[in-house]
Design brief:
binds protoporphyrin IX containing FE; 5 helices; alpha+beta; 139 residues
Length: 139
């Protein structure tokens, strides 16, 4: 799945660092908003009122239960076309679109980042599984 997401970078850059971090739900250096290191898994349920990590923060919406992360692999690339048009080429891979991209995208509806983003393109691309002949040759 690929989405081309244009970002209102001038508008975003006018937000304070604190506000940007609350919109994403992580600090710029990768730490979580409760201060824990990036390689630890915060328990959002321990913050039931969204005081530390707001409910509409990107990471809290995308993966609310960190023990059960969304079954997808993400890979994004920045794009720039002149100074006005820039953003992210977001791609993700999953076996099951319902459980992968679509489940996450539904949860992201209404997230705090929405007002800075505009999806301008993309699509679903299906990759057939390797056949027996390919598997035999690869092993
Ligand atoms: C312009 C659009 C987007 C931006 C700027 C953005 C940015 C980020 C950032 C900074 C993180 C935290 C660091 C990381 O784990 O990589 C993140 C995590 C994540 N994003 Fe996005 N993202 C965007 C769009 C999307 C979309 C469209 C989806 C899926 C529908 C998505 C799904 C996720 C997921 C699943 C995580 C991991 C959450 C976690 O493990 O806590 N993102 N994104």
């Amino acid at each position: 799945m690929i989405r081309i997401i244009r970002l209102a970078t001038d508008f975003w850059d006018r937000e304070s660092l604190h506000e940007q971090e609350r919109i994403i739900g992580r600090r710029r250096d990768g730490r979580w908003l409760d201060g824990s290191p990036s390689d630890e898994q915060p328990v959002f349920a321990a913050d039931p009122h969204g005081k530390t990590t707001p409910f509409d923060a990107h990471v809290r919406r995308a993966a609310p239960d960190r023990r059960r992360p969304p079954p997808m692999v993400r890979r994004s690339y920045n794009y720039h076309q002149g100074t006005e048009d820039q953003g992210l080429i977001f791609s993700c891979f999953q076996r099951d679109l319902d459980k992968g991209f679509e489940a996450v995208q539904h949860r992201l509806q209404g997230e705090a980042m929405t007002k800075y983003t505009l999806t301008v393109g993309g699509g679903y691309f299906f990759v057939p599984p390797p056949g027996d002949a390919w598997l035999a040759a690869a092993t």
